[in-house]
Design goal:
mainly alpha; 221 residues; 42% helix; Four Helix Bundle (Hemerythrin (Met), subunit A); 5% strand
């Protein structure tokens, strides 16, 4: 599971916009660092029937950002309407996306930059007050886009693994140290999900009690 620094929370009275811009930039740097060593051929291939071409993922991230942070949140027309169907994940199975007229690397990078410029232009005048439009209140839609890009960097990492390509050596998550340690989680009731006005997915709402049964893990495995 990937993470990003400084998760957005509820409105605290300050201007959320600078922090959102910083997080958008940090996540984008991470994405570009991830794919920087890859060749044009590697970016454009279908490496496995389960996965899209990596450069398709990049174009999809930009199209999704334009849809939600510019079109839906501010009512503006799409930057490039003809790309909507190309990057619609429901229009073609992953194994077939290599046949779509998706943007190749340099054109795709330029498109990503153009979308981001529109995003930041809209952000500069965005009303993120808790009483604002549902998408914009507390920066909700921006957090959704940040999480979406992080999800696709996970997908790209999966593609690299399936293709037998060594992943970059820079840290990709928010944790340090060994991730192989096992532990015993105590059984009992606990609260799952949230009712708070913070970013959460639909399946994380509402807050509810759940009983965790006893389950021992052998630390020697």
């Amino acid at each position: 599971m990937t993470t990003a620094p400084t998760q957005l929370r509820g409105h605290t009275g300050g201007d959320l916009r600078p922090g959102i811009a910083d997080r958008l930039a940090a996540v984008r740097r991470r994405t570009l660092d991830l794919i920087a060593p890859l060749s044009e051929e590697t970016l454009g291939l279908v490496h496995d029937p389960l996965m899209s071409p990596i450069v398709w993922d990049l174009g999809h991230m930009a199209t999704f950002e334009d849809l939600w942070l510019v079109q839906n949140a501010f009512g503006k027309p799409p930057l490039r309407e003809e790309l909507g169907r190309v990057y619609d994940p429901f229009s073609a199975a992953r194994a077939q996306r290599g046949q779509l007229p998706f943007l190749r690397s340099e054109d795709c990078f330029a498109y990503m930059e153009a979308v981001r410029a529109r995003t930041l232009q809209c952000l500069a005048n965005a009303d993120l007050d808790p009483e604002a439009d549902k998408l914009l209140a507390n920066g909700f839609v921006y957090e959704m886009i940040i999480r979406h890009e992080l999800q696709h960097t996970e997908t790209i990492l999966q593609t690299l693994q399936l293709a037998g390509i060594e992943r970059p050596s820079f840290p990709l998550g928010g944790q340090t140290g060994s991730t192989e340690a096992m532990m015993l989680v105590s059984a009992g009731e606990f609260e799952m999900g949230t009712d708070l006005l913070v970013f959460s997915y639909d399946n994380e709402r509402p807050s509810h009690s759940l009983h965790l049964g006893a389950f021992e893990i052998d630390s020697g495995l």
